[in-house]
Design a protein that fits this description.
The chain is an alpha/beta fold. It is built from 10 helices and 10 strands. The strands form 2 sheets. The protein has a 6-stranded parallel β-sheet with strand order 5-6-7-8-9-10. Strands 2-1-3-4 form a 4-stranded mixed β-sheet. Helix 3 runs parallel beside helix 5 and helix 6 runs parallel beside helix 7. About 50% of the residues are buried.
């Protein structure tokens, strides 16, 4: 089973859009069995409408889609209530935090009540990672060490781009934080995927495409062509995601 754990659905105010029809077509063409939907950035800073949309898609296509609840810690108690609704009424599968688009520092105290609430519901927290000063991988590592009982998903291999400039930083964070799993979209190179899978184990990696901003075909191809065993590829492409989604 292949699960893409990082897909943005809808039209973003930051540019870029992906319709459900185009996503389903892409999944059929690439052989992806399930996608984890993330709400896009819009003028609705509470993300109530966007979360309702992905919840609706998850309900309509339960074999194709799972969805995460996006919240903005800048909204305070309102955001906490949005998350409670996402868990208790909409059946969403985890928390998504995007410090870059919503403008906050991931290890700021205003974020901690959100992390704690995710812990109460026993769901993972996915953090858009790599952006300097807001969510560098060291800052994500700081949060993960504060809350060792919570599973964190660090996107993009812990880096903001494919330069590899922060690879040593990301490696250190992953080695020191067993409660972090790293999503693969935009990772520095095939060699990085191979090194992490062989040195830290395949359970440290989670396939995601960051579609529509990155090409799902290329992201999938990079896993498939990596010089690692087929068993490790299966773990990265699907089994880790199945565990996180409790399938």
């Amino acid at each position: 089973m292949i699960i893409d754990f990082h897909v943005y659905i809808g039209k973003s105010m930051v540019e870029g859009q992906l319709s459900v029809e185009d996503l389903l077509r892409s999944m059929e063409e690439t052989g992806i069995d399930m996608s984890v939907l993330c709400p896009v950035k819009t003028l609705d800073s509470s993300y109530r409408e966007q979360n309702a949309y992905v919840a609706q898609l998850q309900k309509k296509y339960p074999d194709k889609f799972a969805a995460y609840c996006r919240v903005d810690p800048n909204t305070g108690e309102l955001g906490l209530e949005v998350f409670r609704r996402g868990m208790e009424e909409q059946g969403l599968k985890g928390m998504l935090l995007h410090p870059w688009e919503d403008t906050y520092t991931i290890n700021d105290q205003r974020v901690f009540p959100y992390i704690e609430l995710a812990g109460k519901y026993n769901v993972p927290v996915m953090i858009e990672t790599g952006y300097p000063w807001l969510c560098h991988c060291f800052q994500v590592g700081d949060v993960a060490q504060r809350y060792p009982q919570i599973q964190f998903i660090m996107t993009h291999g812990g880096q903001v781009d494919s330069s590899g400039f922060s690879q040593a930083d990301a490696d250190r964070v992953i080695a020191n934080c067993p409660n972090i799993i790293t999503e693969t979209s935009g990772m520095f190179s095939d060699e990085t995927i191979e090194s992490m899978a062989n040195n830290m184990g395949p359970y440290s990696l989670l396939f995601g495409s960051h579609s529509p901003w990155l090409d799902v075909r290329l992201e999938l191809y990079r896993i498939r062509r990596a010089h690692i065993s087929e068993d490790k590829k299966e773990i990265i492409l699907g089994k880790n995601a199945e565990k996180l989604l409790k399938l």
